[in-house]
Amino acid sequence: MVNKKLRVKELLVSTIIIGGVLGTMSTVNAAENTAHVSTQVPSTIASGSSGTSQAPSTKTPSSTINESRQNDNYNVTPSTKSIQVHQAKFKTGSVITLTNSAKTSNGTQLQNYGDQSGVVTNVISPKHANLDYTYDVKLDNGMVISNVLEQGVVSFDKISAFSINNRVEIKKDATHDPDGKNISAYRGFSGTITKVTRYHQLSSNFYYQITLDNGVVVAKILEQDLQRYTNKPVHKDGWSSENGVTKYYVNGAAIIGEKKIDGHWYNFASNGVQSKGLTTLAHKTVFYDMKSGQMAYGYVWTNNGTLMFFDTSDGHALTGVRHYSGGVEVCGADFKQIRNNYATVGSSRYYLTGNGDAFKGSRETNGQLEFYGTNYVQVRNNYTWLNGSLMFFDGNGHAMTGVRYYGLNMEYYDANHKQIRNSYMRTGNTYYYLKANGDAFKGLRQYSATGLEYYGSDFKQVRHNYATTNGSTYYFNGDGDAIKGTRIVNGKLEYYDNNYKQVRNNYAWLDGSLMFFDDNGHAMTGVRYYGSNMECYDANHKQIRNSYVKTGNTYYYMKANGDAFKGLRQYSTTGLEYYGSDFKQVRNQSVTIGDKIYHFNKDGDADSIQSKNPTTARYAKNTSVYITNNADQSVNGNHNLKKYAGQNVKIISVTANKQSNWLYTVELNNGTIIKDVFEQDLQESKVNFKVNTNKLINWFESRKGKLTYSMYGSRNGTDGTADCSGSVVQAIRDAGGTPFTWLYNTEAIHAYLKDNSYQLIDNNDPYGWLSRRGDIVIWGQQGHSDGAAGHIGIITNNLDNPLFISTCYITQGQKGTAVQEVQYNQFASKNGYPYYYVYRLAQ
Fold first, then answer.
1. What range defines the domain where residue 458 resides?
2. Where is the signal peptide (predicted)?
3. Alpha helices in 596-688, H assignment, sequence order
4. pTM for the whole thing?
5. Between 95 and which of 70, 156, 312, 634 could a Cys-Cys bridge form, CB atoms 3.0 to 4.6 Å apart?
């Protein structure tokens, strides 16, 4: 059985023994001043009773304390096990030094006392056997520090180099005693040491009191400033005047070359004679004062009245440009300051005034204007601003007047040398315009909301003539203004749109009628073929729509979009006519269409329909076909087939019909059923969609003045209202694009554009992009462009500052003003240059 009480008792006894050891450490006093000081610190043996060490020892035995006691109350035999207790490294009186990492037991850092020596005045035992001792220390400077941790204390074990009664000399480079007093007057003196004192910093260790041979007592001389007495003869040292010249000796030898004496630089020639005046050294030219011979710094007037400047750091004579507070001066190769003259330093030219200061500002000489910048350098082959005007100074530094060509540009300076800016200039009958940066304008210039002018590659304004730029042609009248609207020349009608561009190879609406202008910009009359279509323009150049056209005995019918009709046309509930592939109406003739044979009378009306093969339909049940791109609506009018154009459908049933041979019931991929679809509205091959950029832009042009902005109506103009994204979606579809499932907003329209072969060419490039007609621009970062946070429109020309057409809220929703065409850069700037994407139709 384990006797728990016995174990506890043993523990108590052990604790008591340890306590006895920790509480009975001895102390030893050490003398501070000795005849020949040694501060090696021995360890001592600590016992249970107080004691004082009588003799130093360099050996440190361990202390072992054996103690046994008996407790009668518990009748227990005390443990006789010895306990090893570590000793303090130092004792009272020990000479020590604090390290830089020394600190007290409460954590106070003592780095400010690092390397200082002192005496241990108290040894403090640890509370626990595994802790170190702490000490109270009195530093040699009198400071007392308590509870210094043992690990920050080291033994001061230095031995003085000299003892009392030693004969010594004070070194010739001694300067100050430990208290900072100057002792240079005693250099080289000999004497006898009368007192040795330990210095409180390891960097010196000791200082000494010396009685000099002349009886003077010097109280404190640092150890490093002493040397043992040599009894050598005294040499000539210091300054010496000899036969009217000055020399300087060190250890009996005359100094040759540069030497710093008492904080001043001097120079001595090869014969030892002190230099004075302008002196060339091996590495620089300097000036020594004519009286003192000390090296000069700063300005120096020579005897011949010339001003020189010598560097304030090393005294070298200055050549070239010197900047000083408030100005610039130039010294020549002869070190003389230049005055009342020009000076060229490197590639810079200066003018120095009568007081030697470099000139700054404008200066007129010999009828020529010169200019010196804030850096005092004359401006040459460069610009400068003067009194709010920009001037140019040529290679000679003279201000320009008249025309100046540089690179591919031109600029102009008036009689006062001022560059002309933001203004016209006329020479004879030729006009120029100088831009805000002073360059002559070249190309199209929009000078007001309604004014456009053009300057050729020679910078001349075009008047009474055409000009073609960036693929567009303009006409400029006698005032140089681009015209807008119609112009008849040599019996030909021309038209210039709201952007002043002559319409060529394109349509234009004029007074409610559509016209087409050919390659030369002349309005068409008569028949025009394009692609697989035909259109017709009357004698007034107006496109004929929703009307018959007769040429001789041939009839055509022009549809609502102006295209000539081709195929069967149901013009009333009972009236059916046919137009061949040449668009001509068939009269007095039979035509086989599918499985039907139609006969058309002299008026072009079908008067009989017979089945050629009534039992055979083109498409069988369960056949997969596509709804054609030009499908209009099913017979019963219940479905608008336009939105299903291009979709793949499955034939559900086939029904004979006298008007189109066969009617079909079809099923869309989503399960929607459509009945009574004409056979001609189906095809076997996949439908290819392709957007026509001209038709896309014309969609907007034709709706100017007709739409009102709203995000809450039809959005695509069917009710007279529209918004930006709804308009673009509808315009793309009407220009040959794919059907849409809904009128996408600016968030969702990205995918629709890609489905229609548009490619993303720019994603918010901070430097912009090279725009092209037909580029579609979306504002608003995707994910943050819902509602009014986004916008979309189309670039309509190829100018550097292009036009941008869109359905927008610029007019705050005024009726009929939603479609606006503006300059893109100004529009973007006004809206804070929003985050943008640019899509371009793939070629």
1. 452-523
2. 1-30
3. none
4. 0.38
5. 156
